[in-house]
Amino acid sequence: MSAEDAGGAQPLPLEVQEAFDRVLVQAQERGVVAPLAAHARRVLDAAEASCASTAPPAPEPGGRFGMIGSSPPMLELFAMIDRVAASGVPVLIQGETGTGKELVARALHDASPRKAGPFLAENCAAISENLLESELFGHKKGAFTGAVADRPGHFVVADGGTVFLDEIGDMPLPMQAKLLRVLQDGEVRAVGANTTKKVDVRILAATHRDLPSAVASGDFREDLMFRLNVVTLHLPPLRDRGDDVRAIARAILPGIAEEVGREASISEEALAALAGWSWPGNVRELENELRRAVALSGGVIRPEDLSPRIAAV
Length: 313
Hints:
The chain has helices at residues 3-7, 14-30, 33-54, 72-84, 101-110, 129-137, 154-157, 173-185, 211-216, 222-228, 244-260, 268-275, 282-296, 308-311; strands spanning 63-64, 67-68, 91-94, 119-123, 138-139, 151-152, 162-166, 187-188, 197-198, 202-207, 231-234, 265-266, 300-301.
């Protein structure tokens, strides 16, 4: 570190130069030049972050339905949501993990005539088959150990609204048969019940799996696939969305900084590094990367604050 580094392009006054030289000599004698330089960098980063926080707000990023993006694949997705939201037909949402399938499901619900009704979501891969049946269809008191009272399932609670079934490709085959009955007849039967109940629910489903391949391997019912696949929406992976990466990073950074408990901004160099990465984990991976960078940075996220695999791109 030198006086030129500290002073930038403008020359320092003589008395400041002399004082700086004395401090530098003492730091060299004590072997603390590196920690002193690191402290100076943190102070400068904090000052830049403070300036960034008082700067005029950046223009709102493009996007719709609570999603950020103006790339051609996202504009096509928004147009499809506009076209199918008002209908009551089932929609199958396909996309890689972390692309925001539940966001699309909520957008379809909020833009539909059912928006005043409930929206309930369940991850079919996250819980056991028995618990999934109880969650979706409900149960009667005494139906199994621990069933101390009647409990309505999602399909009854969401009557007049929407049920979103995430990762439906991982739903067990016996549950698929029961779901098919809901789609065909609009009826559900609680666990332990002898009667059925009519419900008016729109079903939205999502999966990262190739359902035709799952049908061919016997892991998914073909008739259920046809019932669900009236309209299919394909979510583009983040690597195919161009400059949307920059817009998303800018938009979600303030919330992540608040969550971590630090003020943070991001440099153009760091944004360029983010835009150059392939994002196999999609938006979810980007969120986690920004959390890491906020925790490690001194206030302004720079390429060296990013994961080595990303900074090296």
